[in-house]
Write a structure and sequence with these properties.
The chain is mainly α. The chain has two domains: 3-60; 63-112, no CATH class. The chain has four helices and two strands; from the N terminus they run αααββα. Strands 1-2 form a two-stranded antiparallel sheet.
């Protein structure tokens, strides 16, 4: 499916979801009255919730300034690659732990 067709489809379903919220009706009743699939409605509603939650998380994320590293470290040819979902960063293997831990926390990793 082309991007423009997908975007149009997404906008159509978002419009239905907004109209359903304003209507105060159950999902089933709204879908019946508008002659749309309840299953598809549920799919797009869930997709919208996930997308909104991701956007909200990004907007609440505090950026960590690592441009001015206070603790000097020796440049190294070896490095560590950290991957999380769509994010991949490469840090020197000599990066001090007190600087690495905030990066891991920002990326959503847990540590003890």
């Amino acid at each position: 499916m082309s991007t423009s067709k997908h975007q149009h489809k997404r906008e159509t379903w978002l419009s239905h979801i907004k109209a359903w919220k304003r209507s105060g009706k159950s999902q089933k009743r709204y879908c019946e009255e508008n002659n749309i699939s309840l299953v598809q409605f549920g799919y797009w509603r869930k997709k919208t919730l996930i997308s909104n939650k991701a956007a909200e998380t990004v907007s609440k994320t505090k950026l960590l300034d690592i441009t001015n590293v206070p603790t000097p470290f020796k440049p190294s040819t070896s490095s560590i690659i950290i991957k999380n979902a769509d994010i991949e960063i490469k840090v020197p293997s000599t990066l001090p732990l007190n600087q690495l831990l905030p990066i891991l926390k920002l990326l959503g990793f847990s540590y003890v």
